[in-house]
From TrEMBL:
One Pfam entry name: DUF1848
Lineage: Bacteria, Bacillati, Bacillota, Clostridia, Lachnospirales
Entry protein name: DUF1848 domain-containing protein
InterPro entries the record matches: DUF1848
Domain of life where this protein originates: Bacteria
Species in which this protein is naturally found: Porcincola intestinalis
Amino acid sequence: MIINTGSRTDIPAFFHTWFYNRIREGYVLVRNPYQPQQVTRYLLDPSVVDVLSFCSKNPAPMLPRIHELDTFRQLWHVTITPYGRDIEPYVPPKAEVLKTSRALSGIVGKGAIVWRYDPVFLSEKYSLSFHKKAFQSMAAFLKGSTEQCVVSFIDLYEKTKRNFPQARTVSSAQQMELIDAFDSIAADNGMQIHLCCESSALTAGHPHTDAQGCFSRSVIETAAGIHLSVPSHSLARKACSCLLGGDIGAYNTCLHGCRYCYANYNRAVVEAQTAAHDPCSPYLIGHAITSDIIKDARQESWIDHQMNLIDFL
């Protein structure tokens, strides 16, 4: 199975000590975000965890101890967007994150690094031409350190509309204009673009762009160098074929403060939640309570060890 850490929060940026403690102790307890008394215990053991999957805007805090993960296969999605502190007030300077991504690639290998340029939105400041220039500059810097890039356009979730009322959707014509540019840039820099929950119509005439999803089986297989046989119950949503189950994070705990965020209610709630974080607890936030109902996750390796024709090529 896949253990995900980044659909609900940014564990590498803010909870790295806790995560390494969980690796050392070999398990983690995760509350159901909609039924908090329901708790799932996941083993953090390479025999049943095929890949540790991360999604972070700042992997740097993880790097000093990264070799503690050497027994695990890893997949890192590093989000690097062109927005300033008006949009991402607590994200480190982009030049630092770009350098961190290259350094991480040197440790885990370029196949295990995916650059996320998302979400894309437009404004007077962040125009079409701005995005084209920013994408070109970042892709050139990351050339050789990753071969995969995820692009998505902003979705106006209720939390997003409340926290970022100025946000507006990107029209189909504007999306096509950007993908026209991005696909060519990706080709020049040895990258494949994966669209995240976007129309497959955007791939027409764009050989370096697909709409298979950002955490799809093929993306994970490419990153980890394995073949997977994934049970149907593991697909987390109907919009794509991404394997997003097994997330050990918690909503309302990311301190980056991005205005477009779908995972946080508001800053006050986030600060209250993170104040209850204990790096020594098996729970990301807080501790056990008497009403907890703890169940073991159904965990098994999905690796298909049978020889595939591709192994002989």
